[in-house]
Amino acid sequence: MFARVLRMIIVLAMAASAFVPANGALAAEKADEKADKDATFDVGSTFAAATGEEKIQWHGYYEFEYIDQEGKNATYDAHKITVWMGVPINEKVFLSSEIEYEHFPRLEDSGTARPGGNGEIKIDSSQLSIIPFEGFRGYAGIWYVPFGIEYLSYPGYKNKLVTRPKVMKSGGIIPGTWSAAGIGFNNRFDGIGHLDVYSINGDAKNAGVSRDSSTGGNQGKSIGARLMLDDFVEGFNLGASFVSGKWDAADKFNSVRTGIHLRVDSDILFGNDIYPVLLAEWVTGKDDNASSIIGRDKKVSGYYAQISSLVHPLTELVARYGVYDDDEEVTDNQRTETSFGVVLHLIDNFQIKGEYQINDEKGANRKDNNVTTVELVAWW
To answer: What is the pTM of this model?
Structure first.
């Protein structure tokens, strides 16, 4: 199956390449246009949005996928349509929201045992930003927790692969696409970078689930911070994140995560489109008294590294490797993932992506679960 998909993608890329000159001019032009658009549609950039000229800003993207994983039925999936809206209330206040419609919701078949689908609608972000003076932003509402930087590039048209690193999404290390209710502030230090400090409902073990209502969770709040040194040199981002808070109903046991991130856009640093982009993160943490081995703390850790290169104005090649362990007290619990992919930029605001992921487990956890995915992405 993977060979057939790969051949199809290569043929499409070669056919399209015949109509585009193989130089960096077109890629640079498209990068400039994309940068202008990203200034207003970016889960981590509200400064530009708040000072934009448009009264109401409306953006979004759509992802449709074909998934063929060992041990499961091959399937099509209308993964998501995400709609983002921003409204400048006045020159100091900005309101933004992001709503996701995820997966195709099948109807229940009452005449058989076949279950319905898992389609859902959810608000990932709904925040009020207040900018009292240049370089400082206070925010309140629901927003993506500023931990690491992977979530800044998770939307389909920014993610270079179809899947996301399991360390940051579904590997049990931190909650994937982690949004929570709370308050925070961001301060920009010219020539240095950005600092976020925040307080939220929820924790790194349970995300926002455990404390987002009056009937569950506890009275505590998680406190976190992230420092990004991304203003020394354009195209270089080094930073660290930390979050800590009680995870249990009795408000007794702590959950803590620490992370380090690095992003190097060498294409920007050296002015050559073909030079690679490196993205890497490492996370470690502990949930008190939460191991599957009774009475022990659950220690978690993991990392990933991803490299991508625009080898042609229409074609990017991508590779990623990750290691993660969601309970180090358990024997043979460490897992790895290795992904290879291609992104085809055939026309404006539209991509075709292909990925083959090799998953590896140890001991009794070993199973056949490699996956081939093809994704169509459109955005506006």
So the answer is: 0.84
